[in-house]
Amino acid sequence: MQSSAVFSLSPSLPLLKPRRLSLRHHPITTAASSSDLNVSPNVVSIPSLSRRSWRLASSDSPLRAWSGVPSPISHSLDTNRFRTAATAVPESAEEGDNSGKLTKVLELGLLFAMWYLFNIYFNIYNKQVLKALHAPMTVTLVQFAVGSVLITIMWVLNLYKRPKISGAQLAAILPLAVVHTLGNLFTNMSLGKVSVSFTHTIKAMEPFFSVLLSAMFLGEKPTPWVLGAIVPIVGGVALASISEVSFNWAGFSSAMASNLTNQSRNVLSKKVMVKKDDSLDNITLFSIITLMSLVLMAPVTFFTEGIKFTPSYIQSAGVNVQQIYTKSLIAALCFHAYQQVSYMILARVSPVTHSVGNCVKRVVVIVSSVIFFKTPVSPVNAFGTGIALAGVFLYSRVKGIKPKPKTA
């Protein structure tokens, strides 16, 4: 015979007829301990629980006898409730990741914009100074001097960690400083002779010299993809050169020499294999090279061009002193800033992405200089420049492709 259970509840609750009931715990309240329950064979007495603490509702599951041990059903409900709360954590974490990614994208976009903007201002103001003051060595020396002052301030104020460099490291960095000095000097010599757009069109030949020097000194054999990208670069530069209005051999040769020295720096950095530690990252290496370039450039400038940056000399040349000083300072600041930002970008993206960005930068500089200086451009010249820049973009995309290993 089955015994029927009778519930004796507090006076605040009405008497209920026996039926299939289940006792649900309110999610906010805690489970009652066994000391709060008086259990008899047929009567369950709950003496001191408030009306809002417990609810009675019908259930399809059979009513089980109570004991001091928590019910598996309530344990399952608590577990499910815990799992539900736990699944909400990845959603908030995912939102945090998305906001973090968005912040990084915006930061990277700002760096690219600064990189391009500093390049535009540097080329415009630098061209104006070189056109008024025919002293490319002096202008180059001023740019290294301003950069050295900024680096010194940065280290003294602990804005960037001052490195500890050994004599062996300085000896290894010296060849890099030499070719860095020559590269910037030749660029300024070219900008003083030909238009900004033509100088940068010729400088699009850098991949050609990179492939040539890497094959000669590093033994790196170019892939067919790379060789295929070099063809439009060379053809485009040749086509732009024969149709350039401002063409002269001094400007053309200087730009080519700049390509040779700049790519020699890249090859030397691999050949010399400068030992780096935590204090010698790319920005620190560039800062050391800038200081060494100032030391290298100063005596050569004084013995060849003399001192041509004095107010008396500038006035004798019929040029406004204040304008030359202001534009030279802006050009020097932008010169140092765009190279610093370039290394900051390189630390955040892959070399391929950086190369593509550098190609786009060259396009931006050419277009902006043509618009600002109102440089006459023939259709043939524009077509040749476009072909060369397209080849540079193709080269930046395919240079990372490795040839498939030959199977036996």
Automatic annotation (TrEMBL):
Membrane spanning stretches: 105-125, 137-160, 167-186, 225-243, 283-303, 377-396
Keyword Membrane appears in the UniProt entry: yes
Native species: Arabidopsis thaliana
Zinc-finger as UniProt keyword: no
Source superkingdom: Eukaryota
PANTHER family referenced in this protein's UniProt entry, alphabetically: SOLUTE CARRIER FAMILY 35
GO function terms (MF aspect): organophosphate ester transmembrane transporter activity; phosphoglycerate transmembrane transporter activity
Subcellular location: Plastid, Chloroplast membrane
Domain named Sugar phosphate transporter: residues: 107-396
Record keywords: Chloroplast, Membrane, Plastid, Sugar transport, Transit peptide, Transmembrane, Transmembrane helix, Transport
CC annotations in GO: chloroplast membrane
Membrane topology of this protein: Multi-pass membrane protein
InterPro entries assigned to the protein according to its UniProt record, in alphabetical order: EmrE-like (IPR037185), Sugar_P_trans_dom (IPR004853), Tpt_PEP_transl (IPR004696), TPT_transporter (IPR050186)
Protein name per Swiss-Prot or TrEMBL: Sugar phosphate transporter domain-containing protein
